[in-house]
Amino acid sequence: MNNSDLSSSGQMLQQLELERAKSEFLEEELDDITFTFQSSPPVLTLSENGAKRLGINRVISDPHESVDIKDIENESLKQLLDELAHTTAENSAVNMSGQILADGKMTDCTFRCRTLWMTAEKPIYIGATGRILCR
Question: Model's pTM, two decimal places?
Fold first, then answer.
């Protein structure tokens, strides 16, 4: 590696750290439940407030098999997962209403999510991110 490679790597790491810090700040300021899902390896990461409100762990490996998720799973979450599964890179947004077990009770919510895609010759699904706004 030459000095310009190290400089570029350092700049990339600095940019990633900046993006992480911005994301953490926004999560702390919102009362909403926010989440990010990465598909490989499958990991669901909730905002600290979101994990607290749902009563589950903040970081969940293999969420499709997780006891945490099975404890809060309901028809709205199943519908959300189905909607997310039917998105494309060109049509990646999902907005829907439903209910979720938050703060120990069933609560009306709005789900605002977007699937994430790596652009290449053929887009590749890499995950999803979103907010759950509870009333």
Answer: 0.78
